[in-house]
Design a protein that fits this description.
single chain, Rossmann fold, Dna Ligase, domain 1, 3 domains, five-stranded antiparallel sheet, four-stranded parallel sheet, globular, binds adenosine-5'-diphosphate, binds magnesium ion
């Protein structure tokens, strides 16, 4: 048996967050790797192992651990995906909704810049407003008019955020595409009848879907640009084709495995093993 680490957040306790490492450990074991699930900690820098599956988003420890281990995903890729504005910038040239970045603000109480509000307003109402750091749809909002835009902007002063063109054709719907080792391996269409956000955590339902040639090629190019071993890419249905909405380096695969019947954990485990043990175990 070979040895490896699966690192989870130091403060994780939700069942969904613990299902992911457990599935990966199970599939790695079948391939001959004993992967220990460990909470993030300074002590890990002194541990031994052939690689580290890093399911945390702590960018500092990712870099510290990368001094010693091959990380899945790599630290830089995790860092870019965790920050929606950095992702937007790294994907320059890819089809994405038009986006305006907030301005760095040192004091939380300051009124939003009028120039910023005007630039956001030029996107046309309603306007999507997103915190750069957020997940499960919880830090994504919609401003229907100037009053709401100003209120949201004031509330988010001091937090990095962005303003984005609302893709009306895709309201409540998107396509989640899983790419592993450069290949599209599964896709799920997510729909919500009650919210413009299709996230499962907000009531969106997932159903198995086919990633057509355009979606697969786009998702694979995005994963390659960001250097991701594993990711879930959210694509919006734009008027003239898909648009990249978001890239999740730690995408949960529980629902996806259920609705598609595709063994995502096994596919990821096989990719990791083939990367690390090029001549077999
Ligand atoms: N520009 C947009 N136009 C239309 N819908 C959007 C847009 N951006 C996000 N959404 C919807 O909101 C959901 C959550 O946004 P996303 O950027 O993926 O943040 P999170 O990290 O919280 O999932 C998306 O899955 C999509 O359904
Ligand atoms: Mg998302």
């Amino acid at each position: 048996m070979k040895n490896a680490l699966i690192v989870v957040n130091a403060y994780t306790s939700s069942p969904q967050e613990l299902n992911q490492p457990a599935r990966l450990r199970e599939e790695l074991r079948l391939l001959g790797v004993n992967a220990e699930i460990v909470p993030n900690s300074p002590a890990l820098c002194g541990r031994e192992g052939d690689f580290c599956v890093y399911l945390d988003k702590d960018k500092y420890y990712a870099r510290l651990l990368e001094r010693k281990f091959r990380l899945f995903n790599r630290a830089e890729a995790i860092e870019i995906c965790d920050d929606k504005m950095l992702t937007y910038l790294a994907l320059d040239g890819f089809p994405q909704p038009e986006t305006v970045s907030s301005l760095l603000c040192y004091s939380e109480g300051a009124a939003p810049s009028e120039e910023l509000l005007s630039a956001a307003e030029a996107l046309g109402y309603p306007i999507v407003v997103k915190e750069c750091f957020g997940s499960l749809g919880k830090q994504v909002y919609l401003a229907k008019d100037r009053g709401e835009l100003r209120a949201l902007s004031s509330r988010l002063q001091g937090k990095p955020h962005l303003y984005q063109k609302f893709i009306g054709e895709s309201a409540g719907e998107d396509l989640r595409v899983i790419v592993i080792g450069g290949k599209t391996v599964a896709a799920m269409k997510r729909c919500s009848e009650t919210d413009f956000r299709s996230n499962a955590a907000l009531g969106g339902r997932g159903e198995a879907a086919e990633a057509d040639g355009e979606a697969a090629a786009l998702a694979e190019a995005v994963a390659a640009r960001l250097g991701l071993d594993y990711c879930g890419i959210d694509l919006l249905y734009g008027k003239t084709g898909y648009l990249v909405c978001e890239v999740n380096s730690n995408a949960f695969f529980g629902t996806l495995e259920k609705v598609t019947n595709i063994n995502i954990a096994a596919t990821y485990a096989r990719h990791i093993v083939s990367e690390i043990y090029k001549n077999g175990i």
